[in-house]
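Q: A reviewer asked whether we had any structural model of the full assembly, not just the individual parts. We don't, so I'm hoping you can provide one. Inputs are below.
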Amino acid sequence: MAQSRAEEDDYRNKQPMHEQQHGEPKQEDYGYSLYPERSGSKYKQGSIGESLFTFKHKCHIMLQFAMDTSPYAKLLLAAMRTSGCAVHKDRHFSCEDCDGTVSGGFDAATSQIVLCQNNIHQQAHMNRVVTHELIHAFDHCRARVDWFTDFRHLACSEIRAANLSGDCSFVNEVSRFNFGLKEHHQECVRSRALRSILAVRKVSREEAERVVDEVFDSCFRDHAPFGRIPHSKKDAKFAYRDFENRDRYYANL
Amino acid sequence: MAGSHSLWRPPRSCDVYWSEFKHCKSLFNRFHEYYTYGKSPDCQQWKQDYYTCKEWEKNHSTQAKESLQESERKRVAEQRKFTPVWELRKTPPADWHLPLNQDKPQDS
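A: Here is a predicted structure for the entire assembly that you could use as a starting point for your response.
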């Protein structure tokens, strides 16, 4: 799964656990331990406990608002619908309690985006998490992404998500006390992709850096479905306008 | 072909070229171009395309049409200047729409 941390906004890709035999050394868990509710939630759905002790309702409201109003999300949803992966809120999104500071993830095994209801409390944050995870879902939909065994694919989707979701915006970086100006966006994308891989795979830093370096140039330039790097809602709106006019555009090229 | 020429229109409407030009020139965008690529944005082509578009609207000249097509094809080529890491699908994943209880991975 691709995950997002509340404070540090780490995004991780989650993948199903391999079957384990008794007595074998502990295998890769692909980050699933951060999402304990993937294997069953603490409160029964619709129970009083659920409504009193979780933020599920707030999460659903913020999610709906994001899907309705964020131009980033709207473009991704439209692009996915065109590609044959129409997104249904009830099927493809799940609001759950997660561990630590993770904000969300994409579970390729169930084709679901997990939103960490206990770690997302502001609409702007929800918008960004939804965009980030939708980019993973979009990649899953339009390409043969091997989330589980090909680090290059994992790195590529993380680079794209960090690049295109606004994760690495100047304002967000400053809020993390990462001050930088010239080409800092690229540094941020690189470092966040690296952290994501290290968080979900038992691999050395050198190996992870090598993989990120190998795919960075290609994946940083892949701006689908935006056609540009959207630095603001206005960029995203322009991108959405282009997407809506794509038939006319390509017919007259 | 005579018929196709009369059916052609610019890939974007002229006001879109102008709004892209204005947006390109804005302080916000110039800042982000530097923040991302370490350089200033090149906005002149949007302005040029706007005037070409207006010219085509006025007199439907072949030169205007070809100029716009060339400019847009360059933009498309720019967006495709990378070798994909993965293979693109022809059809969406088979399990995308499967209901959830059929989708769960099997526990050992």
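A: Points you may want to mention in the reply: Residues 2-43+51-233 of chain A form one domain. The CA atoms of residues 166 and 252 of chain A lie 32 Å apart.
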